[in-house]
Every structure is written in C-alpha cells, then in structure tokens.
Amino acid sequence: MKLLEINTCNYGSTGNIMLQIADILREQGSNAVVAYSLGKTTGETKNEIIIGNDFSKKVHIKLAYWTGFNGCFSIIDTWRFIHKVKRYKPDVLHLHNLHNCYINLPMLFSYIKKNHLKVIWTLHDCWSFTGQCPHFTMVKCNKWINGCHNCPQIYIYPAAKIDQTKIMWKLKKKWFTNVSDMTIVTPSQWLADLVKKSYLKDYPIKVIHNGIDLNVFKPTDSDFRQKYNLKDKFILLGVALVWEKRKGVDVFIELAKRLDERFKIVLVGTNEDFDKQLPANIISVHKTDNQQELAELYSAADLFINPTREEVLGLVNIEALACGTPVLTFRTGGSPEVPDNRTGYVVDVDDIDELEKQIIRICTEKVFHKEDCLTRAKNFDKELKFKEYLELYK
Fold first, then answer.
1. Is domain 224-380 given the CATH code 3.30.1330.90 in the classification?
2. Crossing angle, helix 382-393 and helix 12-27, to 10 degrees?
3. Domain 2-207: which topology?
4. 3-class DSSP state for residue 269?
C-alpha cells in the first residue's frame, strides 16, 4: 500500500501525528510519504514532499488577507505538488490541516474527485466546515450550520481584511463535498457531533482519539520539588503551547489570588515577555520541546488543571493522566472526554468558584489515585490509535 499524508507542517501536535502514522506504516513494509509547507527539515527526501516555499507562502497569506479568499492561491506550487502526486500514485490520501495558506484547495479537490482517490481526512479543528475560523465556541457562533456571514472573528487567524465568509462557506462546501470515497476522522465525539450538523454530514464519520507515547509519558522522577522548595506544597500544573485567554491564563492568575499558601501554581510553555504579566506566586517554566522534562513536570504535580475554553480534545489532559496525575478541566469541546469519574473532574466554563472548591477537595482529600490515572491513559496509547487508522486504509 502507498500512503500520502498532507499537513500544514511536520512538527507540533498535528505534524507529529502525521509523522508517527507514516512511521508505523513503513514499519509494516508499506510506503508512506508526507507532504507539508512548514518544516524542520533540510530539504525533500524520498519520504517527504515540501509544498511551495517561504516566499510563495507569504504571498498566499497576503493575498488571502487582502481579498478574504483563503486557499485560493498557490497555483504554481499546487500544480507542482499534484505533478509529484501523479508520479507517486498513492492508494490512500490522508489529509490533516489544509488551512494556513499553502495549497490551492479547488485544484487539490478537483484532482481528488477526477481520480477517485480514497481519502481519509482528520479534522483537528472546525475550519473545514466554516467560512473562516477554526474555532467558534468562545464567540458562541453557529452561523456555519446554514452559511457563514458577518464573521465575529474576521481579524483572528486566519485573518482577513475583507469579510468573504459568505462566499467562502459556499466555495468550501462545493470543494469538500461529493468526494466519491472519503471518511472523516475526528479526535473527539464532540467534534464528530458538530460535523454531523455541517455540510460534511453525508460522509462516514469515525472518532479516533489522539494518542500519545506511553513509553515517554509515564511516572518519571525529578528534582522539581526540591529545586523550587515545594516539598510540602500541592503543585497545580498548567501546560500550553501558547498561553492566551482561550487557554485560560486569566483563570490561573485569578486562582493565584484566591488559593492559600498550601498550593503552588506552575505554568509550562511561557517566555520572558509572558512572565511580566504573571503574579510572583506563579512559577513559570519556559517553552520546551523536551518530552522527558514534560513527563517529569506532570509526574511532580498533584493536579493538572486545564481551564481551556476551546478544545477539540486536549492532548495535555492525556499526557497528565499517563504520568499518574488527575485532571481538572472545563466542560468545553472534547476536553471532558479524557478523564472519567475515577481520574478527574469537569467544571462548567468560567465557574471559578467551583474550580477553586474542587482544587481544594481533590488535593486535600486525595480523591483520585495514580493507578486509576495510568489505567485510563492506556485507552490513548498511540499504538492502538494509529492501528485504527491502518484499518481505515484497507
């Protein structure tokens, strides 16, 4: 079997998922090629295709911003890419993120339809069925169900100067529907339920939760408590790639004002500029790509808190459980699907009073147990999750 995967990049959560699926397929003796526009790479290899270049991507971003038409440019780059696809002749095309202005969408889907390719499309957000935005929970917008217009997030990624969401919704519906053999995969039941309300509803929909490497994320010893003199403290951990209101940074700042000296908040994924807005009683750990270090931090914590306001699933929740740490999260998106009633607790979004109450209860009463967390995490073993993809390829 010959697989071709397409994603915006070859790093981060979506990039790693793409690469790991390809690796597993190669281990089984099949061919797997990945294609992307942004990458940590020195150039194309036999297993990689780079779509376009930095200059053409910047041009596409600018044109999309000034016209409001996202995914309508990069014509030459896409023509070259499709030429390479024709030579490779994949049996299965696995799509991941197609936004961020690097490929011409009508050209790509025209090729897919004309050649009746077998397609698996993993949706990592909601962009595929909206006129513009990848997330709409915080603004409570449901226009995408019948047709976008007057977008309340037009200046937010992928930003545009002109609101063309009414036209873009219709164009995306035209491009993305009527593919002869396509299965939609979502990382959460929450997202699957949204897809069933969208113009993609006629496709088969399969829920495959994101998986993690349980050989990396596991209970791991560290000197973190000793280093920060936290021997007798309850450590409350938060982890994010980018800290913003969507991820609940303001919630942690408020908790830092409320909780007494028995508790210590630790935020991971910060930087020097971000440190300036944090109160002195929050410990800041700057961004790291070191998964071993992350496992040490998860393991040192008494409770992992994820006050996210928009979330498709929440890999950080899974990583925490795999290190034996219970999860406290907001009831939004797919985040509540990770912990069960033996490994965590779910609070209504922005209910800070209840969040504070549950933090104190969980930590002081030892409500959850490490072994239950580890057992729950086994449901998200990447080996099991990626095998579910392999079944779809057949």
1. no
2. 70
3. Rossmann fold (3.40.50)
4. strand
Question: Which structure tokens are listed for 192?
Answer: 């699957």
Angle at 112 between CA 107 and CA 115, to 5 degrees: 120
Tokens of 169: 């919704």
82-91 per-position pLDDT tens digit:
999 999 999 9
CA-based nearest residue to 284, from 221, 230, 225, 238: 238
Beta bridge partners of 205: 184
Structure-token pair, residue 366: 């030892």
Distances from the Cα of 110 to the Cαs of 13, 30, 159, 174, 179, in angstroms? 28, 27, 26, 10, 9
Give the span between the Cα atoms of 174 and 55, in whole angstroms.
29
CA distances 193 to 119, 147, 181, 340, 346, Å, are 20, 18, 21, 20, 20
In order, the DSSP letters of 314-341 are -HHHHHHHHTT--EEEES-TTGGGS--T
Strand ranges, E, within 31-151: 31-36, 48-50, 92-95, 118-122
Q: In whole angstroms, give the CA distance from residue 358 to residue 352.
A: 10
Domain ranges of the chain: 2-207, 224-380
* CB-based contact 152:139 (threshold 8 Å): yes
- Of the candidates 326, 315, 150, 349, the one whose C-alpha atom is nearest the C-alpha of residue 246 is 349
Q: Do domains 2-207 and 224-380 have the same CATH topology?
A: yes
The secondary element (H helix, E strand) that includes residue 234 is strand 234-239
Taken as a whole, the chain contains a residue count of 394
C-alpha separations of 95 from 17, 120, 341 in Å: 12, 6, 34
Helix/strand/coil for 384: helix
Convert the pLDDT of each residue in 273-327 to its tens digit. Answer: 999 999 999 999 998 889 999 999 999 999 999 999 999 999 999 999 999 999 9
Closest alpha carbon to 144 in 130, 124, 165, 161:
130
CA atoms of 48 and 30, how far apart (whole Å): 15
Query: Is the pTM higher than 0.85?
Result: yes
